[in-house]
From TrEMBL:
PANTHER family xrefs: 2-IMINOBUTANOATE/2-IMINOPROPANOATE DEAMINASE RIDA, RUTC FAMILY PROTEIN YJGH
Molecular function as annotated in GO: deaminase activity
Coiled coil spans: none
InterPro entries in the cross-refs: RutC-like_sf, YjgF/YER057c/UK114
A GO cellular component annotation in the UniProt record: cytosol
Any one Pfam family match given in the protein's UniProt record, by short name: Ribonuc_L-PSP
Phylogenetic lineage: Bacteria, Bacillati, Actinomycetota, Actinomycetes, Micrococcales
UniProt-listed SUPFAM superfamilies: YjgF-like
Protein name (database record): RidA family protein
Superkingdom, taxonomy of origin: Bacteria
C-alpha cells in the first residue's frame, strides 16, 4: 500500500484518495472528486447507444438502426457524451461523476469498462454501477450513462 497522494488537479476538479489507497489496483472509479472554486456543474441526461433526439412516445423503428451489441452501443453512447460535453464547454477530463445503469452487468460491464478506459484516456471519475431490469427508451438498450461534469467558470 502506498501513501495517500495529495489531491491532484484535473481540469476543474481535484482527485481525492483516502486511507487504503493502492496505486497498483486497476479501478474504473476514484473515491472522491472535489470541484475547484468557480467551477460550474453540468448535468448530462442519460446517454445510450440510441439516437439522442427521438420521439416521445417512443417509436421502435427509430431505434432499429442502433447497434444491438454492447461494444457498438458503448461506442455510440461515448460519442453522444462527447457531443454533450463539447456543447457544455467541457472535456472528457471534466467528468466528475458517472452513474452507469446496466440491464446485464455480467454480459456487458467488462466491454464497457475497456471502452470507458480508452475513452477517458487515463482520467477516472467517481462512479456507481447498477443493474436494472430495463431502460425506458427501448428494451434493446443494454445500458445508460448519467454524467456530471465540472465546467470552467468562464
Amino acid at each position: 500500500m502506498s501513501d495517500i497522494p495529495a489531491p491532484r488537479r484535473v481540469g476543474n476538479a481535484e482527485i481525492i484518495h483516502h486511507e487504503g489507497y493502492d496505486d497498483g489496483i486497476v479501478s474504473p472509479f476514484v473515491p472522491a472528486i472535489r470541484t475547484v472554486s468557480g467551477a460550474r456543474l453540468v448535468f448530462i441526461s442519460g446517454v445510450t447507444g440510441a439516437p439522442v433526439y427521438h420521439d416521445h412516445p417512443h417509436r421502435p423503428e427509430v431505434f432499429d438502426a442502433m447497434p444491438m451489441d454492447a461494444e457498438g452501443q458503448a461506442r455510440n453512447a461515448f460519442a453522444h457524451l462527447d457531443l454533450a460535453l463539447r456543447a457544455a464547454g467541457c472535456e472528457r477530463y471534466d467528468v466528475v461523476n458517472m452513474i452507469r445503469f446496466f440491464t446485464d452487468i455480467v454480459a456487458d460491464q467488462d466491454v464497457v469498462n475497456a471502452l470507458q478506459g480508452e475513452w477517458f484516456g487515463g482520467h477516472i471519475p467517481t462512479s456507481t454501477t447498477l443493474e436494472i431490469s430495463r431502460l425506458a427508451t427501448d428494451p434493446r438498450l443494454r445500458f445508460e450513462f448519467h454524467v456530471v461534469a465540472a465546467a470552467s467558470a468562464g
